[in-house]
Write a structure and sequence with these properties.
Blueprint: E1 2-8, E2 10-16, E3 27-31, H1 37-45, E4 48-52, H2 56-71, H3 81-99, E5 102-106, H4 121-128, E6 135-138, H5 139-154, E7 156-158, E8 163-165, H6 177-185, E9 194-198, H7 204-211, E10 216-220, H8 224-236, E11 243-246, E12 256-261, H9 284-293, E13 297-308, H10 310-313, H11 319-328, E14 332-339, H12 354-359, E15 362-368
Parallel strand pairs: 2-6, 3-4, 4-5, 9-10, 9-12, 10-11, 12-13
Antiparallel strand pairs: 1-2, 5-6, 7-8, 13-15, 14-15
Helix pairs in contact: 1-2, 4-5
Length: 370
């Protein structure tokens, strides 16, 4: 961690932490309820961070006011889907940088010493671990930590399990149930008794396989947070004796009758570890799954690739490239099951990526060794 410094009656400092990879603020000024949104926005755009010392809810109002000013420059659809995507990501990065300049200070016990501030200590312990002294974070990040605590407490209902999955901070939540439904209804290979779930995240697909009667499931993930989350969920659901969580390697040791992989759908560079559930630089996880599959399947086994075609519709990958990668890995396509998304963004015509999202198809590719 790095250190930020500011003047507040005297010179002060605190450690700087950013889960989203925001750079260390080089200039920090103290701000409170007297700070006008126009001034805050100008300072943030110039690179000055604002350490908030006023009322907690006034800070949230200021953040919303700054966001409205940023929204006036939001891009529309560009000439091509790929250009629209690049502009969209550039705008999102700019928005994160500007809003990330409004900071709060977490005290040694993870408390927030602001008027009307909620108790955030438990949420911060779950996200960051035990406190190691005062730390400055962006208010946007803290709001994400608080929201993650609520997600973790309440869970996400998964129809295929008729149960709730409880995502941890920094682990992609299974809010899009259509891809889970594909794994729940695809025909299992004959005689399947062992399966791998690669990139398990919350453990939702491993739990679905266990619910379907697979007796041994190994769930892997590169992220320690995801592995802890997956184990928490499979244990809650009563599958602790069926599912084993491993990592950080993509493939565990041995072979399986079924290997399931739902890699991040967008082959673009993640801005931080929080993006790893969505972005897969160069399609690295996709190709790792395909290239290793033939050597990890039991005779007669299958690999299930769960993948959206959103990258194809955004011009980031072609269908021909995907088919070539499957063939180059020594695999054949047994079947493909398709589904359409049901999330709200499909209907949001103000989204610059609306055309691609509205046409998106998510597929489960059943792959086998010839």
């Amino acid at each position: 961690m790095s250190t930020i410094r500011w003047i507040e009656a005297q010179a002060r400092s605190a450690r700087w932490h950013s889960e989203s990879g925001l750079p260390l603020p080089r200039r920090v000024v103290v701000a409170d309820d007297r700070m006008r949104a126009a001034v805050a926005y100008r300072l943030a755009c110039e690179g000055t961070a604002l350490l908030w010392r006023g009322d907690y809810y006034n800070a949230r109002q200021l953040l919303r006011a700054m966001d409205r000013r940023i929204g006036r420059a939001a891009p529309g659809a560009a000439g091509t889907p790929a250009e629209s995507f690049r502009l969209y990501r550039r705008f999102r990065a700019h928005r994160a940088r500007v809003l990330g300049k409004l900071l709060v200070l977490l005290e040694e016990d993870h408390t927030l010493a602001l008027r009307r501030a909620p108790d955030v200590s438990r949420a911060c312990v779950e996200a960051y671990g035990p406190s190691d002294g005062p730390v400055a974070v962006a208010l946007t990040e803290l709001l994400g930590v608080i929201s993650a605590r609520e997600w973790r407490e309440n869970g996400v209902h998964v129809p295929a399990l008729n149960a709730r999955i409880h995502p941890h901070y920094g682990v992609f939540a299974p809010t899009r149930s259509e891809y889970v439904d594909l794994v729940a209804r695809a025909p299992l290979p004959p005689g399947v008794c062992a399966a791998f779930d690669l990139g398990t995240g919350t453990g939702v697909l491993a739990a679905v396989l266990a619910r379907r009667g697979v007796r041994q499931v190994v769930a892997t993930d590169v992220s320690a947070r995801a592995r802890a989350c997956a184990w928490d969920n499979v244990r809650r659901l009563g599958f602790g004796g069926t599912v084993r969580v491993a990592g950080p390697d993509l493939y565990p040791e041995g072979r399986a009758h079924l290997v399931v992989c739902n890699p991040p759908w967008i082959p673009a560079r993640p801005a931080s570890d929080l993006d790893l559930g969505v972005y897969d630089a160069g399609g690295g996880m996709l190709h790792g799954f395909l290239d290793g599959l033939a050597g990890r399947l039991e005779p007669g086994g299958e690999g299930w690739l769960v993948l959206s075609d959103l990258a194809e519709r955004l011009g980031l990958r072609t269908r021909a490239e995907l088919l070539t990668a499957i063939e180059a890995a020594g695999l054949r396509i047994v079947d493909r099951l398709d589904t359409r998304p049901r999330h709200a963004r499909v209907r949001d015509r103000h989204d610059p990526l609306h055309a691609a999202r509205a046409a998106e198809v998510t597929s489960l590719w059943r792959l086998a060794v010839p």
